[in-house]
Design goal:
heterodimer, A: alpha/beta, two-stranded antiparallel sheet, 15 helices, B: alpha/beta, 3 domains
Chain lengths: ~300, ~375
């Protein structure tokens, strides 16, 4: 394995990585370290995890973080309803007679009542290639949860007090993403490799669009990518990401457009701009100018 | 020590001298990365370090400089972090209850409490910061170190034990309890959604006209950062500088000094609209301002375009729970919010308060926790 082979493998899944990102993924796998990705919305952080999973053949296990998430939602929980039913059944059949509370308890906290959540599933994995654990938007979780993650990611093991220790035979590939709504704790970052994901350059973006929207004309893909590059330079509330470029191209292709033109661009602007103020700004700037500039860039 | 190790250690040393915080574990990781990638190409050596030694986007520029001077061109002058002179008065008063920190998970039991213990404080309480002598400023800073700023509470998604207004059954504890009653869930346990303080964002104007106040207010910001977890502080000048990390140091003087070093445009001009736009764009809209209490500490003198300020105030208001403007000049006799920036912003505020004295800062702390 080398950064180049990682890049080729990702490209085969339709994910075009630059040399920095490919190297970061290579190192994460080679050194067995989690990879922390930061970057603007829509630069393809989540997509990367999917592409890694597809290229290694590992299962993608996604953990979406939110405020208040805790171990029972992220790591494991007990199936309480079944436990209660089990207790009632034991009581009804007289199986509880003469037994100590401890022995009944041991029966309840058995693996068959264990509900495996994302983290435990990623660690307690035995067949096939190691899974890819995507911990998405970790900055949305609370600090307490971060501390817990730190423990899990340090030695890739989970302790369930009633059962014992689950240890990963082969550590999963872990990808964390953050939108920087707050600083993730240094201790957690220290466990991870770090990569800031940039918007792709024009050439790479055209390649991405062509892979993802193969039905679109080359000319259209090129012109849309060029137009998006112009939009990003316009100080919008929400500069379009790669995902928007793909959506826009797909929408135009579906409409049978072969070359970007002002009328169809304006009609489909909703796929690429997500704020009314942004749309107003672009329209007042002149869609004609935008299209003309994009077409002249694409012609080069 | 092998040759490669020596080179790795020397490079990390160089990197640290530019102000990037690279722990020992990162050096080890860097060496492993170099081992995995080999040192055959510039890209390999560059990305080995970028991935293992850099942990913040802000450090990328310093890394690039260190990399270039170390590996490529030894003639380039070493990276010097911008320095700004600022005098900091000595403060030896440490409040003994400084360590409670609010980390114990009971977010709600920290009622906003403000302590001012010395009666000597009374004299200073109502005085305008601008008329303080240096000694008095030091005293004021010390008093402000005792302020406790807590954001207004909001309902959290995190469940806590107990029977609230809309309880949900705590099955885990109910099952445990049922064990002792023969599997019959006689004793039921409940959880409900707890409360937690809203995030607080302070935007401190550090332009020239705010000079008499900014240094006292930065102390207020420090008290807020130390007092609770969900606080972010930015300096608004000709550009936006994030000060949260610098201010999170416990020692107030060291923290304020670090923050002052981080802000390169201290006492420069103000472009409030541009600063706010940068905040909205890079931080606010991504989530930092959502549902937060945003406090702008500024006299409202703005050299920028008022339409930009207006647009950004509107945008901020849509994101934030409350927008509070603190203007130290508000108390001045005959003051009317005529400064162009202030007049533009006024219609978009939830509260407009004074910020010239310790007394006013106490009222601000109360306003924030509303």
């Amino acid at each position: 394995m080398s950064p180049e082979s990682v890049r080729d493998d990702l490209a085969a899944q339709g994910y075009i990585a630059d040399v920095g990102l490919a190297t970061a993924v290579f190192l994460a796998r080679e050194l067995g370290r989690p990879l922390m990705l930061e970057g603007d919305a829509g630069v393809g952080k989540t997509e990367l995890a999917k592409a890694i999973a597809a290229s290694t053949g590992g299962e993608l296990i996604r953990l979406q973080c939110y405020e208040g998430i805790d171990a029972s939602q992220a790591v494991y929980d007990w199936d309480y309803t079944r436990q209660l039913l089990h207790l009632r059944a034991a009581e009804a059949t007289g199986a509880m007679e003469g037994r100590t509370t401890e022995s009944v308890e041991a029966e309840l906290y058995d693996e068959r009542f264990l509900v495996r959540r994302a983290v435990l599933r990623a660690i307690d994995h035995h067949e096939g290639p190691p899974p890819v654990l995507l911990i998405d938007e970790v900055d949305r979780a609370d600090d307490e949860f971060e501390a817990y993650l730190l423990e899990v990611l340090s030695d890739f093991q989970v302790t369930v007090p009633e059962i014992g220790v689950f240890r990963a035979q082969r550590p999963p590939v872990v990808v964390l993403t953050s939108n920087r709504t707050r600083d993730v704790h240094d201790a957690l970052k220290r466990r991870c490799l770090y990569h800031w994901v940039e918007h792709p350059d024009l050439e790479r973006e055209i390649e991405i669009v062509r892979r993802r929207v193969p039905e679109a004309d080359i000319a259209l893909s090129t012109e849309v990518a060029a137009a998006v590059a112009h939009l990003r330079a316009m100080e919008l509330y929400k500069p379009p990401g790669v995902a928007e470029t793909i959506d826009w191209t797909a929408a135009l292709a579906r409409l049978g457009v072969r070359h970007l033109d002002a009328a169809s661009a304006e009609a489909t602007l909703g796929t690429v701009l997500k704020y009314r103020e942004d749309t107003e700004r672009v329209v007042s700037h002149g869609i004609d100018d935008l299209v003309a500039a994009a077409r002249s860039d694409a012609g080069r | 020590m092998s040759n490669a190790t020596a080179i790795a250690v020397a490079f990390v040393d160089r990197l640290r001298s530019t102000g990037v915080d690279a722990p020992l574990s990162a050096t080890i990781e860097y060496q492993r990365a170099l081992g995995a990638l080999g040192m055959g190409s510039r890209d390999a050596v560059y990305w080995a370090g970028r991935t293992t030694l850099v942990r913040r986007r802000e450090d990328i520029a310093a890394y690039d400089t260190a990399f270039n001077t170390f590996w490529d061109d030894h003639s380039v002058a070493p990276y010097e972090p911008p320095s700004v002179a600022m005098s900091i008065a000595v403060d030896d008063g440490e409040s003994p209850d400084d360590d409670d920190g609010g980390l114990d998970g009971h977010e709600t039991d920290e009622a906003p409490s403000i302590e001012l213990r010395f009666s000597a404080a009374e004299v200073l309480r109502h005085r305008d910061f601008a008329s303080y002598s240096n000694d008095e400023l030091a005293e004021a800073r010390r008093l402000m170190g005792r302020l406790r700023v807590t954001g207004s509470p909001r309902r959290s998604l995190r469940l806590v034990n107990g029977h609230g207004s809309r309880p949900r059954m705590d099955l885990r504890r109910t099952v445990r309890a049922a064990l002792s009653t023969g599997g019959e869930p006689l004793q039921r346990h409940w959880r409900h959604r707890g409360m937690r303080p809203r995030r607080l964002v302070l935007l401190l104007d550090v332009s020239g006209s705010m000079e008499p106040y900014a240094r006292a207010l930065v102390r207020f910001a420090h008290a807020a950062v130390i007092g609770r977890q969900r606080v972010e502080v930015f300096a608004l000048g000709t550009r936006l500088t994030r000060m949260t990390r610098e201010l999170s140091e416990r020692d107030p003087d060291a923290a304020v000094a670090r923050a002052a070093r981080a802000v390169v445009d201290w006492s420069g001009g103000t472009r409030l609209g541009d600063g706010l736009r940068e905040f909205n764009q890079r931080w606010g809209q991504r989530g930092m301002a959502r549902g937060a209490t945003v406090v702008i500490l500024s006299d409202g003198w703005d050299r920028g375009d008022p339409t930009v300020l207006e647009e950004q105030m509107l945008r901020l208001r849509r994101l934030a729970h409350r927008v509070i403007w603190v203007n130290p000049l508000k108390v001045t006799p005959g003051y009317a919010p005529l400064a162009r920036g202030m007049a533009t912003a006024l219609p978009h505020l939830d509260a407009f308060v004074e910020g010239h004295s310790i007394d006013a800062m106490e009222r601000l702390a109360a306003e924030i926790s509303r």
